Amino acid sequence: MANQSNDSILDLRDICSKPKNSIHDNLLWKYQDTQFSRPAESQYNPESCKISYTIKEYSIQGKLLNKDYKNIRKIQLKHDRKSYFGLHLCLESMGNKEVSVFEVNPILRKSIIQLEAENERPDIPIINFIENKYRNIIDQPQIWIIEVHDIEEIEDNEKLTLEEREQKVKQLKSQATQLFKEQKYKEAIQVYKNIHSKIGQIPKALKNTMTQEQKTFFQVELSRVYSNQAICHLQLKEYAKAIETSKQAMNDWDQNFKAYFIYAKAHFERDQKSEALEYFQQIIQKFPNEDVTEVQKYLDKCKQPKTTKNEQQLYKKIFEKLQDKDEDEIQREQKEKFEKVEKNRQTEKILNSAKNGQSINHEEIQKLQ
């Protein structure tokens, strides 16, 4: 979005002097060629897209009304009914990467749900979305500056065949794996959630046509999606979420060794050693053919006696003293090295003086011994 030296105040004189087109019943206008405007790079179908955007809402006096204007929001117009009706109309008139300026009538700041409710029951009170201190200007027009940041095409999940779902799962798994390698754990979680929509939300009519092999495939893959998502939560130190998702993975497929290990490890990281000990022991019993080397390491850690607070403070003091001692020894060694070098330098100076016929100062020689 175009830069302003002060985002909280906007001089509307230049904007209001520009030509504008009516978008909806003379209640919404789109300004042309303002200093903020930027043309679209491409067009999109708002019915099948998830749109990432930011919005600045100004009063007609030029006062910024929303503090969260820097937050990038996402909206799928087909399903969203709570956002402003005017916002829907604005985004429908825009393209990808476009920045546009709109003048908005107060009526269009109501949600679609509100408008429908008012048509059915005119006595329902209006719910305002503006901060309390700006309620006195709620009935005045606003200026909106909207930037479309990105577009994500949304597939119709209902129409995907089982073969298409299998293919999508493989593609998305590869994408999530790469993100995990790059330590982009939050992004990987979003991809795993996308995979879940492909295999965890299969329409009933389609499920009835599945072979046993396909049922097993989707069941196992769904479990793996949850366990991989749990690993990401573990890396982000979101231990409660790691426990929740790994538990779901275990419920979907009770032979998911990885899910059991994450579940136990998350309890260990939360300092729930007794619970973790029990779960690690269960893993060794349940999976005798798996490599449990890492499990055994954590099992041993769980069995180690826990140090009390007083013991921890004592160890800390001892360690600090050892550090101080090491520093003293280093300083002493450095001092001895310096003195040795200085003695050699002084001795060499006296010997050079003797070679030049000068008398030797025996007192200085004595000091260097």
By DSSP (H or I, 4+ residues per run), the number of helices equals 13
Number of domains: 3
Beta-strand residue percentage: 5-15%
Radius of gyration (Å): 35 Å
Indicate the overall shape. flat
Point out poorly predicted stretches. 1-5, 124-131
Q: What series of H and E elements makes up the topology?
A: HEEEEHEHEHHHHHHHHHH
Q: What would the average pLDDT be, to the nearest integer?
A: 82
**Named CATH topology of the largest domain:** Serine Threonine Protein Phosphatase 5, Tetratricopeptide repeat
Share of helix among residues?
40-55%
- What's the level 1 CATH class of the largest domain? Mainly Alpha
Indicate the structural class: alpha+beta
CATH architecture designation of the largest domain: Alpha Horseshoe
Biased composition (Basic and acidic residues): 333-348
Biased composition (Polar residues): 349-360
TPR repeats: 257-290
Coiled coil: 155-182
What do these coordinates show?
Keywords: Coiled coil, Repeat, TPR repeat. InterPro entries: AIP/AIPL1/TTC9, TPR-like_helical_dom_sf, TPR_rpt. TPR repeats lie at residues 257-290. It holds the Pfam family TPR_6. Residues 155-182 form a coiled coil. This protein has 369 residues and is an alpha+beta fold. It folds into three domains: 13-153, Roll (Chitinase A, domain 3); 162-303, Tetratricopeptide repeat domain (Serine Threonine Protein Phosphatase 5, Tetratricopeptide repeat); 309-368. Helices cover 51% and strands 11% of the residues. The chain has helices at 13-16, 85-92, 112-120, 162-181, 185-199, 204-207, 212-235, 239-252, 257-269, 273-286, 293-303, 309-355, 362-368; strands at 20-24, 28-31, 49-59, 73-75, 99-104, 142-153. It has a six-stranded antiparallel beta sheet with strand order 1-2-5-6-3-4. It is flat and about 110 Å long. The N and C termini lie far apart (78 Å).
